[in-house]
Structure to design on (281 residues):
């Protein structure tokens, strides 16, 4: 009797099928057939070589003491670290920058942004480092809102692609929400990892949200000039944007500014106010 063939589900993130990271399965989601195969390898070594991105290769620093070489032809990313990171650490946070390069090669846009799903559409959260993006995503997740991605948003056409199934928090947020598993220092900071539920791998983009700190709070339309500047500043690579026509389509989407008090006890109120605003309530 012939042996039965065992089908292994394709797993991935950021539009990539990642077949050789078995220990990170809980951070990945079912990858559609349209997501490209990409291998991730580890090499023992250190150094901070010069960064570059061209049409076939890229080299990026992986802080604090490593770097990654990305090869388009072989569809491989080789991470060089003195102590090779585990699969789960590679998926998040180290894969994010690599995903930005691969997205560029595919003609997709890639942003430093989180995103959640409301009304069947993905809303991108933009803001400077420390603006509270992950904190708000964690609060939304605790209220049952699907989270598309925590740190990097790849956009193919007008659809956002799902990232790893976790949000990494800082101590204050994790303590206030009572959420997150302590990981110690990964990358350049301590992390408390909050697992996320399933989400559709590709979701139409609904609009942009810039987060600002303001004790009064509130939500308003973001003026077009400010939206343009914020969105361009959020591109992961400081290079000429790929596919300008598709980027212009994204710039035409609604843009909001959410001003939130810098107090953890106000986080739930900000999340509820935002969801009601998107629903038109």
């Amino acid at each position: 009797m012939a042996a039965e063939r065992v089908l292994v589900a394709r797993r991935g993130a950021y539009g990539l099928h990642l077949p050789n990271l078995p220990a990170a399965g809980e951070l990945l989601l079912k990858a559609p057939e349209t997501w490209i195969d990409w291998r991730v390898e580890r090499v023992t070594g250190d150094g901070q070589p010069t960064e570059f991105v061209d049409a076939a290769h890229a080299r990026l620093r992986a802080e604090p003491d490593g770097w990654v070489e990305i090869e388009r032809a072989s569809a491989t990313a080789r991470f060089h670290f003195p102590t090779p990171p585990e699969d789960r650490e590679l998926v998040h946070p180290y894969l994010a920058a690599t995903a930005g390069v691969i997205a560029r090669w595919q003609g997709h846009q890639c942003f430093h942004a989180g995103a959640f799903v409301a009304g069947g559409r993905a809303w991108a959260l933009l803001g400077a480092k420390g603006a509270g993006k992950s904190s708000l995503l964690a609060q939304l997740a605790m209220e049952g809102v699907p989270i598309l991605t925590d740190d990097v948003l790849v956009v193919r056409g007008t659809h956002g692609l799902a990232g790893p199934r976790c949000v990494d928090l800082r101590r204050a947020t994790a303590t206030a929400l009572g959420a997150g598993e302590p990981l110690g220092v990964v990358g350049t900071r301590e992390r408390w990892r909050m697992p996320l539920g399933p989400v559709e791998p590709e979701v139409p983009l609904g609009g942009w949200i810039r987060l600002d700190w303001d004790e009064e709070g509130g939500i308003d339309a973001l003026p077009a000039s400010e939206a343009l500047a914020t969105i361009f500043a959020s591109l992961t690579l400081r290079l000429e944007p790929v596919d300008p026509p598709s980027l212009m389509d994204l710039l035409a989407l609604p843009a909001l500014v959410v001003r939130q008090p810098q107090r953890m006890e106000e986080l739930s109120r900000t999340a509820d106010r935002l969801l009601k605003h998107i629903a038109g309530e």
User: Anything to note?
Assistant: The chain is about 25% helix and 35% strand. The longest strand covers residues 202-213. The chain has a mean pLDDT of 93.
